Amino acid sequence: MSEAACTIHDDGTAAKTESGLREADAALVELLQSRPLPSDDVDELELLGVDFSGLNLQGANFAKARIEECVFDRADLTLALFTDAVIESTTFVGATLKGAALGGAELLWVDFTAANLEGIDFRPANLEEVVINRANLENTAFDTPCVTFLDASNVKGMDLSDLADEDLEPKIRLSLHELGARAHGGHRCPRCLQWDGADYGLDPTCSLCGAVGFVDFDPESRRAELPLACPWCSGTGGQSYSMSSAGCLVCDGLGKVQTWVIDRNQFRDNVSGDYFEYESETEFPSMALGDIDFSEDWFEDGHIEDVVFTRCSFERANFAGALIKDVRFVDCNLSDATLARASLTEVVFFGCQFERSDWTDASFDVVGADPGVFTGATIQESLLATLVPLD
């Protein structure tokens, strides 16, 4: 390295010494612990090739500093400030940085082996080639997948919820969660928990969590809010398949359902070969029902999502105020049905009948249908204008 080490005088100017690793003196340590926060018009602090090994630097202020080829091994940096600092080719082996602030810092080739990083929030920070072997990451937080988290000695309470799904392999998320980390969403997917396939606890076709193993809601709280035991899995949350089992697609593995789900005993004998599970790369509806008579059934204020209805009858059915999302109706009869105040999102009607149906104050968001099929229905012209024509 061609640049010399820098220290700081009381007037804020840098005193250069010979190039090479230089032991930090008491004056520099005292100055760092009493240094005010730098403002935009104050020169940044530069520390190049300085050895702080084993020193007490509690509360020291390195904010906006440039730190290069320095050594902080075994130093006590509890509650130290490194906000917006640039740290390169520097080691913190065995150092204590509990509660230190590194928000906005840029770290490149930094070694935290066996360091205590408890409580540090690395959001936002730019970390590249950072080593955390045997480091304590308890109650830390990250928004970038720059380190191998499983190399740490302790990840209890570590928050990874800001990492995008593609930033961390699902298996690693699950492993970290088992070790006490808070992964994406913070809660294990109840449907995947029923899966005992090749990757236990991670259903590769799960549409509830997107096959990442976590959801952004508390399954226990949601289960407590639901009124009925699921009739499809008898309240177990599981659903058996030929070689393995998966979470129930009707109740999402919760074992309880909303009141709109029809008891299977009411139409078990009427379910034809068109009741099946889709599995393809482009579509995965949770449930597909064919040739079912739902005439005069009550779906008011219900939540119907991720379902395909084929040749089903909904004559005089009541959907008032219901939330209908990601649903396809194919060759269904909705004559005299009530859909007042219903909210439809990404719904397709293909070959359906709507005579005398009531759509007063309903709302459409990406609803596909041919406007002509609504002849005889009570529906606003403005709503018809939003329809997406079918090919």
Q: What's a concise summary of this model?
A:
With 391 residues, the protein is mainly beta. The protein has helices at residues 26-34, 170-178, 219-225, 381-384, and strands at 6-8, 14-16, 22-23, 46-48, 50-51, 66-68, 86-91, 106-111, 126-131, 187-188, 214-215, 228-229, 238-240, 245-247, 256-257, 287-290, 303-310, 323-330, 343-350, 363-368.
Structural overview:
With 391 residues, the chain is mainly β. It has 2 domains: 184 residues, E3 ubiquitin-protein ligase SopA (Pectate Lyase C-like), CATH 2.160.20; 120 residues, Pectate Lyase C-like (3 Solenoid), CATH 2.160.20. It has 4 helices and 20 strands. The strands form 7 sheets. Strands 4-6-7-8-9 form a 5-stranded parallel beta sheet, with no helix packed on it. A 5-stranded parallel beta sheet has the order 16-17-18-19-20, with no helix packed on it. The chain has a two-stranded antiparallel sheet with strand order 1-2. The termini are far apart.
